[in-house]
């Protein structure tokens, strides 16, 4: 079993749609969680951290369920510019080893 | 700050040749990470350093790969000898403190071994 698993997609959605991505992790002792975004042929960049209480940044909402060991990302009112690959990221219990999921590709169409 | 700087951006080499990838982390960052990205395997952590010391190299695929960090502003990833299956994008990233903080990535080196 992979340490971090994501649905690879692709997700094809129209502008304005709401789309959700899930990610599961295998190590119950994992401490910190993130979503990164990677545009085609570019480097990954931090989108948002994921806190236990859930957190929101504009159209983006991230949630963590420790009991079930999954993380989610919700994008509301999708824009064309949201088209990218979204990477789920987990830090191990020591906090230093960063494990990336394989990513979920999103295409937003006009 | 210019961010994490990697060189070269693109490298094409013949099988069996030595390849050296270079990285300059963001000044003041304590941690440096080397990742490899392929379509098949996604983004894999190869090795990371803390204060120039290698902490975990369990992701290095085999002895043909080696990494060094002689000082706080420079790191290299070397492949000797290179093989076609090493073709990938290699990213270097750095962070201020490893635990729970953002890792900033360089633009990557796209390696093609023919």
Provide an overview of this structure:
The complex is a heterodimer of chains A (110) and B (114). With 110 residues, chain A is mostly beta strands. Helix content of chain A is 0%, strand content 54%. The N and C termini of chain A lie far apart (37 Å). In chain A, the strands form 2 sheets. In chain A, strands 2, 4, 5, 9, 10 and 11 form a 6-stranded mixed beta sheet that branches. Chain A contains no helices and 11 strands. Chain B is mainly β. The A-B interface holds A 31-32, 34, 42-46, 49, 87, 91, 94-103 and B 31, 33, 35, 41-45, 48, 50, 55-56, 91, 98-100, 102-103, 105-108.
Key descriptive features of the protein:
heterodimer; A: 110 residues; mainly beta; six-stranded mixed beta sheet; five-stranded antiparallel beta sheet; 11 strands; globular; B: 114 residues; seven-stranded mixed beta sheet
How confident overall, as mean pLDDT of chain B? Answer: 93
- Terminal residue distance of chain B: 36 Å
Residues in helix, % of chain B: under 10%
* Element-by-element helix/strand order of chain B: EEEEEEEEEEE
Helix coverage percent of chain A: under 10%
Described by its quaternary structure, the protein is heterodimer
> What value does the Rg of chain B take, in angstroms?
13 Å
Rounded radius of gyration of chain A (Å): 13 Å
Low-confidence stretches of chain B: none
| Count of separate DSSP helical elements of chain B | 0
Instruction: Give me the count of strands of chain B.
Output: 11
The class by helix and strand makeup of chain B works out as mainly beta
Largest sheet, strands/sense/barrel of chain B: 7 strands, mixed
Average pLDDT value of chain A?
91
Structural class of chain A: mainly beta
Q: Largest beta sheet of chain A, briefly?
A: 6 strands, mixed
H/I helix tally of chain A: 0
Topology, number of strands of chain A: 11
How many angstroms does the end-to-end distance of chain A come to? 37 Å
Q: What is the N-to-C succession of helices and strands of chain A?
A: EEEEEEEEEEE
